[in-house]
C-alpha cells in the first residue's frame, strides 16, 4: 500500500502535523492495513452530514476507549476543499490517527482519476496490496457502522488477525460511556479483595 504514495508526503493529523514521507515511515503507517481514501470537502452539505458518521466509525475501530487493540485500519483524507484553511479547520475536528495529503499536492487529482471519483463524499476501501475492496463505502458505513470492517478484513486477508475483531458489533453499539469506569472498578475491587485476603492470612498467623 505504501507504494501508492511512494515519493509523496502524508501529514499526520496531530498537533505537530508530523510528515510521513520516507519509505520506512510510509510502510509503518500503511502496510498490512485496510486503507480508506476519504474524498470530501468541508463546503459540501452531504460531506458535512457524513463526516461525523465516518469519524465515529473510525474511532470505534481504532480508539482504545472502545477496543483493546486498534484494528488494522488507516485513513487518508483526500481534500476537495476550496482553501487550505478549510482543510485545516475540518481536520482539527477529526481523529489524530487520520492522514492527509498536503492541500497543494496535485496528487489528489490523480487519485480522483485513478478511482473514478466524480462526486463526494466518497470512501474507497483498499487492500494492503492496493486492490479495491469497495469503490464507494459511504452507504455501507452509514448503514452498518463498524460491522462492515469484518467483511473488509476478510477480503484483505490481513496477516495479523490477533487484534480485537468486531465479534459482536451490536454489543459494541450498546456500550455506554460508563464501560471504562466499570472496568476500573473491577480492577480496584480485585486489588481490594487481594489485600483483604493478605490481611486475613496475617491475622491467622498472628493468632
How many extended strands?
7
Residues in helices, as a percent range: 40-55%
How much strand content do the residues show?
5-15%
Distance between the termini: 68 Å
Radius of gyration over alpha carbons? 21 Å
Q: Outline, from the CA principal axes? A: globular
Descriptive overview:
There is one protein chain. The protein has 207 residues and is of the alpha/beta class. The chain has helices spanning 23-30, 45-62, 84-91, 107-114, 138-144, 148-156, 169-174, 179-206; strands spanning 10-12, 19-20, 34-40, 73-79, 99-100, 122-126, 132-134. The chain has a seven-stranded mixed β-sheet, with helices on both faces. The model is unreliable at 161-188 (pLDDT under 50).
Spell out the blueprint of helices and strands.
Elements (H helix, E strand, L loop, with lengths): L9 E3 L6 E2 L2 H8 L3 E7 L4 H18 L10 E7 L4 H8 L7 E2 L6 H8 L7 E5 L5 E3 L3 H7 L3 H9 L12 H6 L4 H28 L1
Parallel strand pairs: 3-4, 4-5
Antiparallel strand pairs: 1-2, 1-5, 3-6, 6-7
Question: Would you kindly provide a brief summary of this structure?
Answer:
This protein is α/β, with parallel strands linked by helices.
